[in-house]
Amino acid sequence: MTEPAFALEWEKLANEGASDTFTTERARVFGGWLVRLTAGTSQSLAFVPDGEGRWDGEDFGEDDYEYEDDEEESGEEDEESEDADEEAEEGDE
């Protein structure tokens, strides 16, 4: 028998408001997550794209992500534009 290429590490996710017969799990794969829903003898499998691995198991939308690099860059741009405005005002005097 051949060895598997790698073993998926399935994490169980909470199912608030769902029947106890449902089990939801996720496994990190290249470019995102495999999400598996089991209900009795039935199973569903979906791929959720997430190249940066930001899904923490609770957030589900783009608005829920925090982009630290973008916030820092936009803060620097704001400071630069304020400095330019102040220099322009000084030049007008």
Describe the structure.
This protein has a four-stranded antiparallel beta sheet with strand order 1-2-3-4, with no helix packed on it. It starts with 9 loop residues before the first strand and ends with a helix. It is 27% helix and 30% strand. It has one domain (10-92). The mean pLDDT is 78. It is elongated and about 75 Å long. The protein has one helix at residues 68-92, and strands spanning 10-13, 22-29, 32-39, 42-49. By secondary structure, the protein is of the alpha+beta class. Residues 58-93 have a biased composition (Acidic residues).
- Please tally the β strands and state the result: 4
Mean pLDDT: 78
Low-confidence stretches: none
- Work out the radius of gyration: 23 Å
- Decide which structural class fits the backbone: alpha+beta
Beta content comes to 25-35%
What is the element string, with H for helices and E for strands? EEEEH
* Quaternary form: single chain
Q: How many angstroms does the end-to-end distance come to?
A: 83 Å
Indicate how many domains the architecture comprises.
1
Largest sheet: 4 strands, antiparallel
In which range does the helix fraction lie? 25-40%
List keywords for this structure.
93 residues, alpha+beta, 4-stranded antiparallel β-sheet, DNA primase
Offer a quick outline of the entry.
The protein is an alpha+beta fold. 27% of the residues lie in helices and 30% in strands.
Question: How are the SSEs placed, and which strands pair?
Answer:
Elements: E1 10-13, E2 22-29, E3 32-39, E4 42-49, H1 68-92
Antiparallel strand pairs: 1-2, 2-3, 3-4
